[in-house]
Design goal:
Blueprint (H helix, E strand, L loop, with lengths): L1 E6 L8 E7 L6 E10 L2 H8 L14 E9 L11 E4 L9 H5 L9 H5 L10 E3 L2 E3 L11 E5 L3 E4 L5 H4 L5 H13 L6 E5 L3 H12 L4 E5 L6 H7 L3 E3 L8 H8 L6 E4 L4 H9 L7 E4 L13 H5 L3 E4 L7 H13 L9 E6 L3 H9 L5 E5 L1
Parallel strand pairs: 10-11, 10-13, 11-12, 13-14, 14-15, 16-17
Antiparallel strand pairs: 1-2, 2-6, 3-4, 3-8, 3-17, 4-5, 5-9, 6-7
Helix pairs in contact: 5-6
Bound molecules: nicotinamide-adenine-dinucleotide (NAD), ligand AHE and zinc ion (2 copies).
One zinc ion binds next to loops.
């Protein structure tokens, strides 16, 4: 079949809108009609060429929601008409990782996913006979996409897809990092570096679990108003201080924060986030994704003296079993999504969504098909 899709031909080039060919779902696969998709900074990261797993030409997008159109042979848990969120972190329920009880990082399809292919090692997308690669197993910048059954969360049929698409990445990642990775306790002091969709979601999660003080840090002060709305108690711009920002935060908090979150993808900021943590127990969670060849560093003494460095992918959330609950939490008013959607547009304007992100003018743009 034909599908309208935004194709990334080459690192650094704008996407172009094409009528691509999509093959039907093979065994264990599902054809999904995407209704809406967010644009996450990770899409921009891969498009920039900084992602060691970036493959071109490809169809990016990993923050979508849609409707099942057709299922391939052997698919038992989904049927046409079901509403779904594609998962870049699958949940097979059977692999060593799924069975460990320690991680959400199912590896059942991760190797082929990283090669831009379906689990059988081939792509369902092409244009004029040329292969187009999948992205993160989701490729939500296409009206029709093919996704493994184990990479789809079935959600409440009444959930508004143009809103809950953001639970496919950003909002779930931030809230989950607070609840699952850091396990922030009531009364905690928290620092959040970077106030995009991820950082604001961390703030939302920190307020949900009863953090007492939430320090929001960004170099773009336009982000402060929304940070305060979500629960930030202090908003600071590192450019306003001559001291290193970690020292400023240690001084503000009688020795450092209980938890910090890096939501930018900047290895210098990752160090600041670790070093603003309290001696003896402070934990810093890396959420931001850094480019090929980048490395983090600190004095090992920072860890010897009790600070902990951790990372979080998709907020530690197991997509098939736990994401439907996040959707219901939105429907019950426990999770806020609407204020994140600062812009909506059609697929033909998708490059504008990237421009707005780079200019620091959007939190999330949602593409409506
Ligand atoms: P975004 O572009 O919307 O927000 C980033 C924010 O960081 C902006 O407000 C920007 O002003 C701020 N910033 C930039 N440099 C800064 C600095 N030096 N100090 C302080 N603030 C600074 O991005 P986003 O969509 O919120 O994504 C944030 C990061 O999280 C990206 O690296 C993205 O790839 C990553 N991410 C990771 C996961 C995961 O599962 N680990 C999931 C989603 C996104
Ligand atoms: N491909 C990159 C890593 C990208 C990355 O870390 N992705 C996050 C999700 S970002 C969503 O916006 C993730 O889930 N990572 C775990 C995984 O299995 O990819 C690289 O550096 O190679
Ligand atoms: Zn993302
Ligand atoms: Zn698994």
């Amino acid at each position: 079949m034909k599908s309208r899709a935004a194709v990334a031909w080459k690192a650094g080039d704008p996407l172009t809108i094409e009528e691509v060919d999509v093959q039907g779902p093979k065994a264990g696969e599902v054809l999904v009609r995407i209704v809406a998709t967010g644009v996450c900074h990770t899409d921009a990261f891969t498009l920039s060429g900084a992602d060691p797993e970036g493959i071109f030409p490809s169809i990016l997008g990993h923050e979508g929601a849609g409707v099942v159109e057709e299922v391939g042979p052997g698919v038992t848990t989904l049927k046409p008409g079901d509403h779904v969120i594609p998962l870049y972190t699958a949940e097979c329920g059977k692999c060593k990782f799924c069975l460990s009880g320690k991680t959400n990082l199912c590896q059942a399809v991760r190797a082929t996913q990283g090669q831009g292919l379906m689990p059988d090692g081939t792509s369902r997308f092409s244009l004029n006979g040329e292969t187009l690669y999948h992205y993160m197993g989701t490729s939500t910048f296409s009206e029709y996409t093919v996704v493994p059954e184990i990479s789809l969360a079935k959600i409440h049929v009444d959930a508004p897809l143009e809103k809950v698409c953001l639970l496919g990445c950003g909002i779930t990642t931030g809230i989950g990092a607070v609840k699952n990775t850091a396990k922030v306790e009531p009364g905690s002091t928290v620092a959040v570096f970077g106030l995009g969709g991820i950082g604001l979601s961390v703030i939302q999660g920190a307020r949900m679990v009863g953090a007492e003080r939430i320090i929001a840090i960004d170099i773009n002060e336009d982000k402060f108003e929304m940070a305060r709305q979500f629960g930030a108690t202090d908003c600071i711009n590192p450019k306003d201080y001559s001291d290193p920002i970690q020292q400023v935060i240690v001084d503000m908090t009688d020795g450092g924060v209980d938890y910090s979150f890096e939501c930018i993808g900047n290895v210098q900021v990752m160090r600041q986030a670790l070093e603003c943590c309290h001696k003896g127990w402070g934990e810093s969670i890396i959420i931001g994704v850094a480019g090929a060849g980048e490395e983090i560093s600190t004095r090992p003494f920072q860890l010897v003296t009790g600070r902990v460095w951790k990372g979080s992918a998709f907020g530690g959330v197991k997509g098939r079993s736990q994401l439907p609950g996040y959707v219901e939490d939105y429907m019950n008013g426990k999770i806020e999504i609407d204020p994140f959607i600062t812009h909506t547009m059609g697929l033909e304007d998708i490059n504008k969504a990237f421009d707005l992100m780079h200019e620091g003018k959007s939190i999330r743009s949602v593409i409506l098909f």
